[in-house]
Amino acid sequence: MSTVIRNGTVVTADLTYPADVKIEGGRIVEIGKGLKGDTELDATGCYVMPGGIDPHTHLEMPFMGTYSSDDFESGTRAALSGGTTMVVDFALPAPGQGLHDALQMWHNKSGRASCDYSYHMAVTWWGEQVFDEMKTVVEKEGITTFKHFMAYKGALMVNDDEMYASFQRLAELGGIALVHAENGDVVAELSAKLLREGNTGPEAHAYSRPTQVEGEATNRAIMIADMTGVPLYVVHVSCEEAHEAIRRARMQGKRVWGEPLIQHLTLDESEYFNADWDHAARRVMSPPFRNQKHQDSLWAGLQSGSLSVVATDHCAFTTEQKRFGVGDFTKIPNGTGGLEDRLPMLWTHGVATGRLTPNEFVAVTSTNIAKILNCYPRKGAILVGADADIVVWDPAKEKTITASAQQSAIDYNVFEGQTVKGLPRFTLTRGHVAVHDGEMRTQEGHGQFVKREANNPVNKALSSWKALTSPRPVERTGIPATGV
Ligand code: URP
Ligand code: ZN
Ligand code: ZN
Ligand code: ZN
């Protein structure tokens, strides 16, 4: 059985041309004029683009005493509805838990995915077991990217000695280090001070995480990465200070990438000063939303290429979960949704405004991500042999975003009321039409795990385990027991 997408304009990260695209066995088999197939999808007036890849999601993640509310079923349905055909989630070991163990738990959850997916592994503690298992996680499990939280002190945060050891290990394994760059010690101090002084509301979350804590941590991670030679990927870059550090590092020839989120690009700090507690708390995430100066910096980074990809950090909590933090902002679960809206919002605020070309849109939502994560051209490409993960994009189609019509399982949407222009006509996951004009035809379990290859190792400096000079006990709070 073959499918042909007819009469569209193919848009990739570097080319725009009219062509039909023929699909068989889940892959692209031919690109050309006048193609015929068993099924035909009309793409007249549409762009035929590689499906979006969201490199940063947290589906059903144990966090801050609860679990994020979108799982691999609702999360991937939301993704496909908005034209995203692959997500990269974070496998998160509990303190003291082995990496393979955590990975197995994530594989169990993701069986319900309706689009393809991969994982990053989080390094939440450090010890000989983590050091040993990193090698098999990279070489056997196909997970080459490891996230380090420099914030969430007492829970997920790793210290500099742990980060340095982990970066060295990754360098020799050909992996990539990811960082959540905020100075967790300073955030903890500021949070305690704000609470002592009676600032308990959601706006205090923003005060507790000024841009300097992000700028400092980004610079520190870049320097530590440089000392080990490991390539570095900075997640959720929200401000000029962090962007500046990344920009400088890239100009110096360092292998550093920055990932802004669609939320930070389009929503600002005024959201936290809404008189409605629920409104503000629903937007609590780390780093917090910033002012226009920082938003302009992020857009400029996408335009100039100093920032490489746009993600969501989709980590959705219901209003009820957010209310854990009534009376104490530090207990509001951190995270916002966006999986379904990333492409339409970026098209509306990026392409329709002239800030990005359609080709740049494809680069930052798909192709650059596939290249950095080593799954190009299987993903992120319209090429013969590539997976048929395709979005047929109708630039004239409009909607107003509202929680009542979304696929996400939560009861609100941070973009509520925004009108977007540019939406999928069809979304295809390995050739299967999962969305047609807003009508969902997703298949639970259709999604497959995408293994990725390591890069060439950078050095052989740390080929055997060395304990840290002053190791700390593995003792954290805030992460619920992770039994499935
Ligand atoms: O507030 C956020 N970003 N929540 C999700 C976890 C993380 O820090 O990425
Ligand atoms: Zn983070
Ligand atoms: Zn995250
Ligand atoms: Zn199928």
Automatic annotation (TrEMBL):
Its cofactor is Zn(2+). GO terms for biological process: nucleobase-containing small molecule metabolic process; pyrimidine-containing compound metabolic process. It holds the Pfam family Amidohydro_1. It is an enzyme of class 3 (hydrolase). It catalyses: 5,6-dihydrouracil + H2O = 3-(carbamoylamino)propanoate + H(+). The modification N6-carboxylysine is found at K147. InterPro entries: Amidohydro-rel, Hydantoinase/dihydroPyrase, Metal-dep_hydrolase_composite, Metal_Hydrolase, Metallo-dep_Hydrolases_sf. One of its GO terms (molecular function) is metal ion binding. Gene3D superfamilies: Metal-dependent hydrolases (3.20.20.140), Urease, subunit C, domain 1 (2.30.40.10). Carbamylation allows a single lysine to coordinate two divalent metal cations. The keyword Hydrolase applies. Its EC number is 3.5.2.2. Belongs to the metallo-dependent hydrolases superfamily. Hydantoinase/dihydropyrimidinase family. Homotetramer. Catalyzes the hydrolysis of dihydropyrimidines and of the structurally related DL-5-mono-substituted hydantoins, to produce N-carbamoyl-D-amino acids. PANTHER family: COLLAPSIN RESPONSE MEDIATOR PROTEIN (PTHR11647:SF1), HYDRANTOINASE/DIHYDROPYRIMIDINASE FAMILY MEMBER (PTHR11647). This is D-hydantoinase/dihydropyrimidinase. It comes from Silicimonas algicola. The lineage of its organism: Bacteria, Pseudomonadati, Pseudomonadota, Alphaproteobacteria, Rhodobacterales.
